[in-house]
Amino acid sequence: MRPEVAVRRIRADEWADVRALRLEAVSDPAAPLAFLHTFEEESAHDDGFWRDRAAHAADSDDAAQFIAESDGRWVGSATLLLREARTVDHHGRAVLTRRADVVGVYLAPDHRGAGILGRLVDAAGDWAGARGATALTLDVHRDNERARRAYHRLGFEPTGVTFTSSIGPEIEMRRDVAPAPRASGDD
Ligand SMILES: CC(C)(COP(=O)(O)OP(=O)(O)OC[C@H]1O[C@@H](n2cnc3c(N)ncnc32)[C@H](O)[C@@H]1OP(=O)(O)O)[C@@H](O)C(=O)NCCC(=O)NCCS
């Protein structure tokens, strides 16, 4: 029987696991359409970078990384970033209203198609909702068909905002923090 998958926020002392999963993600064949940073860039960071990243994502009130864990192995991740109004986000766009952005979404290939993404996004939504957010936003590459469909299934819709990031044409999608998910084929 397949082990159960647990979804939870990371702890600060798990920085080496954070690094390992990120390096796995940026090595994935889908990475050029999925992540803004390459394996070369991510593998160049020292331990202090990963310690700081993990501490922030574990304990701060503006970032939270959620992971899916199966029998001790990290098999997926999604990070929620709360961005205050009037800051500038990673594509140079002004953030005019407070935003709750889902970033760094990844599932290990052998754990895709199993509903884990929905659990990660729900955990991120619960966390953001408890801090006053009413909606989740995310950016997805126009040609990342699998991710677009997965997000659509979870209730995300294009906002109409499109832009070009360092990996190419992207669309912004949005959903309420906790909507009713769509059934398969319910378009
Ligand atoms: C994106 C990702 C998190 C989606 O999770 P998932 O568990 O694989 O999602 P699903 O298997 O439920 O697939 C979602 C949809 O894509 C479809 N799909 C599956 N394989 C596909 C493929 N090769 N090409 C296009 N669509 C595909 C599924 O049929 C499903 O569509 P439906 O809901 O209309 O039936 C996961 O695939 C992943 O980690 N990909 C690599 C990293 C990545 O792209 N991250 C997102 C960055 S924005």
What does this 3D model show about the protein?
The chain is α+β, with helices and mostly antiparallel strands and 187 residues long. The protein has a single domain (5-176), classed as Gcn5-related N-acetyltransferase (GNAT) (Aminopeptidase). Helix content is 31%, strand content 31%. It has a 4-stranded antiparallel sheet with strand order 1-2-3-4, with helices on both faces. The longest helix is centred in the middle third of the chain and has 15 residues, at 116-130. The structure holds coenzyme A. Coenzyme A is lined by residues 28, 30, 34, 105-107, 112-113, 117, 140, 144-147, 149-150, 153, 184.
Topology diagram in text:
Layout: E1 5-9, H1 15-26, H2 31-34, H3 39-43, H4 47-59, E2 63-70, E3 73-83, E4 99-107, H5 116-130, E5 135-141, H6 145-153, E6 157-165, E7 168-176
Antiparallel strand pairs: 1-2, 2-3, 3-4, 5-7, 6-7
The protein binds coenzyme A (COA).
Residues 28, 30, 34, 105-107, 112-113, 117, 140, 144-147, 149-150, 153, 184 line the site of coenzyme A.
Short description:
By secondary structure, the chain is an alpha+beta fold. The chain is 31% helix and 31% strand.
CATH architecture descriptor name: 3-Layer(aba) Sandwich
**Unreliable stretches, pLDDT < 50, 5 or more residues?**
none
Helix content: 25-40%
Structural class: alpha+beta
Bound molecules: coenzyme A
Query: CATH top level?
Result: Alpha Beta
The gross shape turns out to be: globular
Could you describe the largest sheet, including whether it forms a barrel?
4 strands, antiparallel
What's the domain count? 1
CATH topology: Aminopeptidase
- Number of beta-strand segments: 7
Computed Rg = 16 Å
Helix count equals: 6
